Sequence to fold (641 residues):
Amino acid sequence: MLGLTVISKANAQTPEIDKLLKQAATAKTDTQKARIYNSLALKLGESDTLKAFNYQLQAYRIFQKYDDKVGLAQSYHAKGYIFICQDKSDSALYYLTRAIALVKQSDHKDLQGKILVDLGIAEREQNNYPKVLIYLKQAIVLSEQTGNKRNMADAYVQLGSALDVMKNFKAAKIACINAYHLFKELKDTVRMSRTLGSIGFTERSANHPDSAIYYLNKAMKLFKIEHDFLMVAIAHTEIGKTLVSSGSYTQAIPQFLAALDAYRFTQNTSHFDALNISLGICYNNTGEYTKAGIFLNKGYLIAKQQKDMEMQLEALSGLKDYYKNIKDFKQGFKFQDEYTRVKDSLDNKQQLKTIADMSAKYESEKKEREILLLGKENTIQKLSISRKNLAIGVIIFVFIVAFGVGGLFYNRYKLKQGSVLQGEIIKQQDLATKAIIEAEENERRRIAGELHDGLGQMFSTVKLNLSGIESDITFTDEPTRNTFAKSLLLIDESCKEVRSISHQMAPNVLLKSGLVSAVRDFITQVDERQLKISLDVQGLSERLESNTEAVLYRVIQEAVNNVIKHAKATHLDIQLVKDVDGLSVMIEDDGVGFDPALLNDGGGMGLKNIITRITYLKGTVDFDPSPGNGTVISVWVPAAG
Fold:
């Protein structure tokens, strides 16, 4: 995901290296020193390959001397990780496979989980995505068992990256959101910000531009707090690309200009060609042809200097359009010819690469066929020896199969009947839940109507009658007059309270205008001095099904009331994002949070109500309580039908 998901597991910071070196110097045993050397190899894997290999080798020799199986597995893991940093996935897989084989013998689950994450990364470099998914899911399960939240978060990030490439965008987003919550729990703002960026990139790939820009902007806020201007530049670039993909060229221009400034600040010029070309294309589409020519020519020149043929091709395509727009057809034809030449050259280069890949594949398959042929010859020899035994075996096998088939058909019949029964139970449970929620809403409307039309009207009549006779009453003293006036005020307040309760139980705005208007109306009633609430809505231009709107309104209402009563929060963010897959609701406060153990005990009535209602909509709800750091409630409801 263009560097957004590439989260370094080994930031080689000098203080950490110095600390490990001091520990190695004072280590009491050889194996203790070897483990520190192994940690140094992992820390230096990205920044200093030579030193990393040296420390790994020293660790390996000590572990080999003492026949320490876990230590040897750690050593092979470190070597595999260093090869990953060098983009040598074949070598990485060789050593990581040896590491996992050794560690399985010792049942060291924590180390096993770490190795599985790196195996997933190495297999991804080989484009072997079925294995990537297997390794990363195993890593997540093991990390849950050992409670290693950091390794679990790393596994979720890599899983999200793989699913994004496989175009399973919905699952990729869920994986990255899981990683984000874990990094938040670990207070790792660097990985939180990059994971948010990854979610934004996935949303862009899924053609959800509004949601993509939302997550990228959220990531950028954290990048700026961290003073990570390289990631600020990348985030601006991704937002610009998202806007271009939806035809918003005018809005994309400031993003690309901001990205250029951020890259200049970091003295990183590797993306100047692409950014200048993107700006030229935007100015071409907004009619600012003078600027378009300047940026396109500058981008083309940088691409030629860097010998980047793909960027040259993109620049030449833009220059063709530019000269066509300013009616300079002579220059236009010139760049058309240059475009054709570069394209042919690039196609030839790709064809040569394809031929080389096919040749290598053919040689590999040829060797495999030779091995297979030798194996077949050996099998034929063994077959002639075991033919007699086979005849006896076949007779026994026939009896076993006949007995097994009868049992299989019987078990299949039982399973089928059980499946039908289970399906009917689930159907009846769904109908019962639906009936309860619908009855609850109907009862709310009935009570609200009776409060408004019955009790409310009675209070209004009492107030009217008392006001009418006030002038006819002779008060004996001033306190009596004041008591009468206070009684009128209490009746007036009671009228308002009845109207307020009636409105909350069955808000008319929900029936007339829909969920978004009802939520806005509800939060405006909350005193900003007590709790400031912000609402962000993406993609909800049309009404939802009435039951869905009612359930989601009650969930948001319950969540906000819980925050007001218990959270001691000052700020609450509510986000509603609708896409083709469904509707996401995120409610995040900055309050005191609550003990996660409450969730395991079933939670309070409010939490149970939220879970029951979302289950009715076939959705999911995730609570992320961080004691002292607020609470995040993430709700996802599938699209109707």
Remarks:
- Residues 1-12 have pLDDT under 50 and may be disordered.
